[in-house]
Amino acid sequence: MKKDKQTVAIAGVTGAVGQELLAILAKRDYPVGKLLPLASERSAGKTVSFRGEDIPVQVLSQDSFGGVDVAFFSAGSSRSKEFAPSAVEAGALVVDNSSAFRMEPDVPLVVPEVNPEDAKKHSGLIANPNCSTIQMVVAVAPIHRAFGVKRIICATYQAVSGTGKAAMEELDRQVRDIMSGRQPSVEVYPHQIAFNALPHVDFFVEDGYTNEEHKMSRETHKILHDDSIKISTTCVRIPVVRAHSEAVWLELEKPARMDEVRSVLEKSPGVIVVDDPGENKYPMAIHATGRDEVFVGRLRKDTALDNGIAMWVVADQLLKGAALNAVQIAETVLY
Hints:
single chain; alpha/beta; Rossmann fold; Dihydrodipicolinate Reductase, domain 2; globular
């Protein structure tokens, strides 16, 4: 399927991830011969800028994919379910950023630094994992390979941009209102997000967990090909614009010195270790924003678990957690 120049479609091109896809394709010099920007009827007549050219946005339809080599979908689960099969049928490789197909047995769920071999087993469609899952498994997978992981406990601290443009605007508006002495309005989230933390990402299910928390568990099992790992997560939305942070605790199958763990992480693709607490150096959202890597720090022995370690993991969820990972998947398959 490799071509010198490819026809690339982006479904959901006017959204936050769609815009990041445009930037990443240009930055990585991806061989785009023709770009096909696709979006809903609301975006008809708009243009997107790519490599200095303004390209009209077309309305996403079942007939959009003739001659398309790669189709990146970032238009939500319902539209992926409706239109992605048509793209596959037309002969395109589909990389889908929604949750529509992630747990389908015959659809690979891929993080190229972790399970690139799975990408080669596709039947025209590959799923991009949840953003919180991606950054966690980039950090956990090399430790699992080296020492074995029996248990993962994770608390996420997720930026509002993970919800979309309206959430970013609401945070900005609420901060301005509060600082001006006005009562902030609440529309996107069930409660005020400014100066607050909401232990509520996605919808709640019967067992008291949220769907986001279950996604992280199920997807990690699938990506690592190991359902034996016990996983529990708590996902929290915080008033940060961009880049997710995670506190991660691991129970290992065999003992590991912290210098050994640090060495494994420092040699792992896509990981940058920032871990010098004495100099106040540790990963932070403001430093991960706009960066491709997953940052790991606060490495230490866990005091509550046998063979336990704790770490702090930060990444830009619009880049490595979404758009960048999608482009890397396409590169893994086609090159």
